[in-house]
Design brief:
Layout (H helix, E strand, L loop, with lengths): L3 H4 L4 H8 L10 H18 L4 H10 L4 H6 L10 H8 L2 H13 L1 H11 L3 H12 L8 E2 H11 L4 H17 L8 E2 L12 H7 L15 H14 L9 E5 L10 E6 L1 H6 L3 E2 L12 E4 L8 E4 L1 H9 L3 H14 L18 H13 L13 H13 L10 H7 L3
Antiparallel strand pairs: 1-2, 3-5, 3-7, 4-6, 6-7
Bound molecules: calcium ion.
Calcium ion binds next to loops.
Length: 405
């Protein structure tokens, strides 16, 4: 698992936003260049099939907002440990409101389960995580946000241009008005925080009034989330996964959220449910993760976990959705404790780890602070050589070992 993923809370794209330094076109002379940028965007939208009426209305409202682009500049140094992420995701408040929403919208959830096969607890968890059940959807005009990114942010310009065309298409179709199309600064919209292209492909008009209104209509928002999960491969009657117990001396080289194998494979390695029983959902391909290494909890995943990752590719996010859903369904908290004395590394500390691995002759990749599979493999080798459990986890204890303190 990439450590970067932990801090991510929204679309896959926003992980990039959150972790990559923005590169402003700082030399841009403010107004004239902005106007020519907007003219270029308008031309591109025309080619995309957006009418002159929609274009002139939309682009008449946008303003040069260099400050907004600067505010987006973000290279968070500190990474929230997964246990803190889970604590805030599965908070008593969210559980309370979630239970109320489940009751309040019971007939809607019933219908969504029948049509999409996605259970109500998962949908409620997504709703709670994405917009606090619709109460925090973002107040920025989406067209303005995307124009700001397109014109001022070199790294996100391509993304923003694509999203802008999709957003204009949504307005042209009449799903929402220009003024009411609100969302985050990166263009995530409504109660489900769909970016425009996701909306375009997956949003549904579940209440049948002719508009796909994920901003104000719960049925449309939750229907859209259900449709997106179903199309992402959601299997009905299957949980995301469950907590497991690993035998001592377990070989962590097989731990990956991408390696799905038959239940028998895991059983041969001694993996059991946390209560000691044999593995459940044996007919399905299963993967195994230990997001905080050998001294933290481990989980068996089903492919429904993968479907949640389509929504947001952070392991911490998907685990939070799964656990929040379980808790809303009345299941117990996780059993194993998290290694709170061995927190994740900061961005610069991750680079120090990569440099240390390079010095040890175990790593030849980029010093980019991203713990990908190459860095992880090198960490496992380093750990094995240095009397540590080779779990590939990049935590504070590894850094201490490496710096000899
Ligand atoms: Ca509707």
């Amino acid at each position: 698992m990439s450590v970067q993923n932990i801090i991510c809370k929204k679309r896959p794209f926003s992980m990039v936003i959150a972790t990559t330094a923005i590169s402003l076109l700082a030399s841009l002379p403010a107004h004239a260049s902005f106007q020519s940028c907007v003219a270029g965007l308008s031309n591109a939208a025309k080619t995309y099939g957006i009418s002159s009426q929609v274009r002139s209305q939309a682009f008449a409202l946008v303003q040069p907002k260099l400050d907004a682009a600067k505010k987006a500049k973000s290279q968070p140094e500190f990474v929230k440990p997964i246990w803190q992420y889970l604590d805030s995701a599965v908070s008593p408040y969210r559980l309370k409101i979630g239970r109320e929403k489940l009751q309040q919208h019971a007939p809607l959830f019933e219908a969504l389960e029948v049509i999409y096969g996605v259970n109500r607890h998962v949908l409620t968890a997504v709703w709670g995580m994405e917009s606090s059940f619709g109460s925090f959807q973002g107040k920025r005009n989406v067209i303005q946000s995307l124009v700001t990114l397109a014109c001022y942010d070199q790294k996100r310009s391509k993304y923003a241009r694509k999203q802008l065309n999709a957003a204009l298409k949504i307005i042209q179709r009449g799903d929402i008005s220009l003024q009411k199309m609100e969302g985050s600064w990166a263009g995530a919209m409504g109660q489900t925080q769909f970016i425009p292209t996701t909306y375009d492909a997956y949003a549904v008009d579940f209440d049948g009034d002719g508009k796909r209104n994920i901003w104000q209509t719960e049925a449309d928002a939750l229907g859209s989330a259900a449709n997106y999960l179903r199309i992402s491969g959601w299997t009905p009657q299957l949980p995301w996964g469950y907590e497991v117990k690993l035998p001592s001396g377990f070989n962590y080289s097989v731990v990956s959220r991408d390696s799905y194998r038959p239940a028998s494979y895991w059983e041969k390695l001694g993996v059991k449910q946390i209560n000691g029983k044999r593995l459940a959902y044996r007919d399905h391909e299963l993967a195994l993760i230990a997001p905080a290494g050998a001294t933290g909890p481990a989980f068996i995943l089903t492919k429904n976990f993968k479907a949640i990752l389509r929504y947001n590719r952070s392991t911490a996010y998907a685990l939070s959705i799964g656990h929040l859903a379980d808790r809303l369904a009345g299941h117990a908290p996780f059993v194993a404790a998290w290694p709170t004395d061995n927190g994740p590394l900061t961005f610069s500390q991750r680079k120090m780890i990569q440099e240390g691995l390079k010095r040890a002759g175990l790593y030849s990749g980029k010093i980019d602070g991203i713990i990908g599979s190459g860095t992880q493999a090198a960490i496992k080798q380093y750990q094995a050589r240095n009397g540590m459990q080779p779990d590939g986890y990049a935590g504070q204890k590894l850094l201490k070992k490496m710096s000899g303190s």
